[in-house]
Amino acid sequence: MTCDFCDIVSGRAPAHIVWQDDDVMVFADHQPIRPGHVQIIPKRHYSYFDDLPEPLIGLIVRLGQRLARAQKVIFGVPRVGFVFTGNDVPHCHAHLIPLHDTGDVTSLRYFDRVSVLKRRDLSVPSADLQQMAKRLGRALEEHHEDRI
Ligand SMILES: [Zn+2]
Description:
Layout: H1 4-10, E1 17-20, E2 24-28, E3 38-42, H2 56-75, E4 79-85, E5 93-99, H3 113-119, H4 126-142
Antiparallel strand pairs: 1-2, 2-3, 3-5, 4-5
Helix pairs in contact: 2-4
Bound molecules: zinc ion.
The site of zinc ion has 5 residues, from helix 1.
């Protein structure tokens, strides 16, 4: 079985990694709905979020809380969306999206591209994704009191 996210975990596929430990990885969504849109995945392959065991599900949710606090400061938003999906890549993943608008949920590929593209140019250069990943990763490291 091949899995795009298992390939990222193993290093066979590239990603702009924000943070990782032995169990969990955070990387930039390559088609972000908004700047700062990242995905949190368990490193071990699970197809569905409802299959995630404790304490792994708790680790992901607490990491999402830490990331959201950093995203609110860095991207100037009052709220961050957190949603588990897995339709396109069947490896459980949580999208964490700085919310500017009520339509800012999940990933661009789930939306009518024409209507979304009227809002703004959604293409994001890889260098910008890398810069965002480093900035958010540094923010996590700077807040040691919030360690998961
Ligand atoms: Zn996988």
